[in-house]
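PROTEIN DATA CARD
Card holder: ABC transporter ATP-binding protein
Chain length: 443
Origin: Hungatella hominis
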Amino acid sequence: MEQSNVIEVKNVKKKFKVFYDKGTSLKEKLLFRKRNYYEERWVLKGISINIKKGEAVGLIGKNGCGKSTTLKLISRIMYPTEGSIEVKGRVSSLLELGAGFHPDMSGRENIYTNASIFGLTRKEINERIDDIIAFSELEEFIDNPVRTYSSGMYMRLAFSVAINVDADILLIDEILAVGDVSFQAKCFEKLKDIKISGTTIVIVSHSMGQIEQICDRCIWIENGLIREEGIPKFVDDHYLTLMEEKRLDRIEEEKIAKKGKKAEESVVRITEAETKEDVKSLPELPEFCGPKAVRRGNKVVEFTNVFIRNSSNDIAEVFRTGETIIIEMTYISHQSQVSTNFTIGITRDDGVYCYGSSILLDSNHVITANETGITRIILENNTLLPGKYYLDIGAQNADYSPYDTICSVSEFRITSPVINEFGILSLKHVWEVDGIKIEKAAH
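Structure generated from the sequence above:
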């Protein structure tokens, strides 16, 4: 093992026996032998990872790719089928919520039990127990049985113990997804402090934000093999882009299958809901709304469709930074001479609100909606940086009372041929060094 490394994973492979219907008793095993049939499933197919002291490494990949299995192998909860793993130093792990906790014991008693598993003596635990309890913020519940705890309280206690054992290596598997926002922020700050102190951190997460905030290096595991590793931002973007392409391919396949099914139907059905008189009986989430859409309003003015188009006026779901985006909304008004303010908003998939605009904000007045009509907003040379975004649309009264507001009505993606900026949007800029201008290179 190299002196600078604290974890060395060498060509590790791991397989599991997956039983179709395993018999549990001797009688079942004798009478129903077919139940003992199984298949061998290789979760890891040969991965090698070297992690240095004080390094923070993130593991990403879709469910079932082998991320959690890798952490369990490093923590010696299980052992590899082939290959070797060497670990130098005390390991503290947060792999499963409340693992090692006894439900009938109090929080205080479980602190002693759990900390002793990590290798602390009773004297060391006595010296740290006040800090553990204070960090968990469970003072008033600490002497209650942990079976009375919520999942968030479990996480608080487990995390508080794990970070107070002075471990050389800290392994975390998605556990930070549990708990309230303030405690998650507190955990992140503590992890940063732990990292500064020289502790090695290996974290599995589906949150790219967590990986980019904490980690020095990111490893993308796919189908039991390492597909890419490097700077978290670059690897995350490549991973998200591929996942989005696969998602869009599935949507396209579903659309083609749906069109084929409709083509086989010779009868065209006209429902009562297609008439103006019955338009209010349309479902709350019509077909043009995405799966995450949330709708509200009194439907005095109602959206009937929304399209996201490119500069060629073609419907599109993927755009490049700098490309024109056209948002087109069709509507129907159920009353005459309705004063209407049309709005749009754009939110990144991590919840960051990126942009919002409305006719009232731009022109200081509202318009009178026609019986049926089309509203378009043209976003010329959009400056959004690569990522997934959700579109909000709205039709409002002049006092912002909603006629029809649909959040996350559609989603779209921004890509770029090269990643040379980070954040939400691109800002026009010029570098100057010692009075010499450095122009942005063309790609």
